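anyone else get weird line breaks when pasting these?? whatever heres mine. first is seq + C-alpha cells for prot A
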Amino acid sequence: MIVENTPLPGLLLVKPDVFGDERGFFQESWNLRRYTEAGLDRHFVQDNLSFSRKGILRGLHFQNPHSQGKLVYALRGEVFDVAVDVRADSPSFGEWYGVTLSEENHLQLFVPEGFAHGFCVTSETALFAYKCTDFYRPELECSIRWDDPDIGIDWPIKNPELSKKDQNGQWLRDLSRDALAVW
C-alpha cells in the first residue's frame, strides 16, 4: 500500500495493494494495523454506500461540530471526488483537490475532519463507499454550492443533477466562522 500526501494538509491519496489474476482480484479495503502504520490512524464508526447514475453530483457537504473524516472509494463505476478545506485559519482554506476514483484504479481518498466533500458520477452508474469517523448528524450538516466561484472546482460535468439540499447550498464566503471547522 502506498499513501501519498496531496497539496492539502491531511488529505491523503491511498493506493491499496491489489492482487489479481485471470480469476479476478483481492484487495483489503481497510486494515487497522496496516493503515495506522501508514499514518491513517482513525477510528471509523459508520460505513455508508451511495448508488448514483451518471450526471449526479452530491456535495459539497461537511458537518460541524462532530466533523467526519471519510475514507472514500468507488466499488463500481467511476466518480470524480472532491475535497475542499473548510478549516478556519488553515493555510489552504477554500482550496480544493479532485481525483478520479474507480473500480479500475482502486484508489481511496482519505478526507480528514474539517473538509467539505462531494463527488459526481462520470460512468453510467457508480456504487460509492464511505468509512466515517463520526456519526452522521443531519442537523449539523452544511452544504456548500458545487459551483462556488471562490472555490473554482473544475468539475468534469457542467449541468449536474442535484438534490434540493445541494441546490440550496451556501457560498463559502457567506458561512460564519462558527460554522467552519477549526484548523
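and prot B, same format (seq, then C-alpha cells)
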Amino acid sequence: MEAKVAVPESAPGGAGLGVGPGASRAEGAYASFTRGALYPALLLGPILLLWALLESGAALAWAPYLTVAVGGPAILMAERLIPYRREWRPDPGDFRVDGLYLVTVQILLPLGLGWLTVLAAQAWLSGAGLTLALWPGHWPIWAQLLLKVAVGDFFRYWLHRAAHTWPGLWRLHAVHHAPEKLYTTNVFRFHPAEKALQFLCDSAPFILAGAGPELLAYYFVFYAMSGLLQHSNCDVRLGWFNYLVSGPEVHRWHHSRAIAESNANYAHSFVVWDLLLGTYCRPRDRSVRELGLLTRSYPRGFWRQLAAPFLRQVRP
C-alpha cells in the first residue's frame, strides 16, 4: 500500500495557538513556548502534586490515583489545543476499546499482580528474616525515583526489544501496535500476558529488593504520565530533551508501519538506553507516515484482540 503524504514536522498543529500566516510575532513566540514547556509541565506537575498531597497527609492508597486522574485529562486537553495530526483524533469507538483496556489491563491486573502476589511474597520473606534489603531506601525520594526509572527502563528495554524479535512475544505485542493513529489513551492497549511480563521486569524485582510504597507511588505517577504523553497526539517541541526522554517526537516513530522505523526506540521513558544501544530513531528530514501493522485485517475489538495472539489464522 502506498504511504499517505505526511504533514511536515515543522507544520503547525493547533489553530488555537495563533500560529497561522497572519499570526503576530508575540503569538508565534507564545506558541513556541507552549510547545516547548507543555511536556515537562505535564510530566513534572503531577509529581509535584503527589508530593503536595502526601505532605498534607493524603494516603498512599489513593493519592497517586487522584494525581493521575488530574494529569490525564490535562493531556487530553493539550491534544485538542495543539494536535500533531488532526486525523489521529480518536472517535467514540476508539475510546470504548481504550476504556476496556484501561480497566482490565492497566488497573485490575496490576492490582492483582502487585498487592496479592509480590507484596505478599515480600511480607513472607520479611517474616522469615529473608528480606532482600538491597534497595537504597535511605536515599532522598527523588534520587530513588531517578534510579528506579533508569534501571527499570533498562529491563523494559530488553523485554520490548525481544517483543520485536521473537515471534511469540511479537504476537502479544502486536496488540499494542494495531492502532493506525496515535493518541493519548491508546497507551492502555497491551495484551494482559505482556502486561504481566512488564510487571515482572519493572516492578517485581524492585518490590522484592525492598523498594518502599512511597517510591512505588511516585513511580506509578511518573510511569503513567510518561506513557500518556509518549502516545499523545500533541505537537510538542522538546529539543535536546529528546535525547533524555522518549516523548511523542521520538515514540511516534516506534509506531510507524515501516519496519526499519518501528524496530527502534524501545525505551519507555529513559531514551538514553536507545542511544547507547544503537536503536534510537528520530529522522529530521521527514515526518512519520502510516502507523500500525503490516496486516490491515488485524482484529479491532477488545475481546478479539485478546484472543488474536493464540489464533493461527491471525497474522500480525
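btw re prot B: The chain has one domain: 34-310. Residues 44 and 276 are 25 Å apart (CA to CA).
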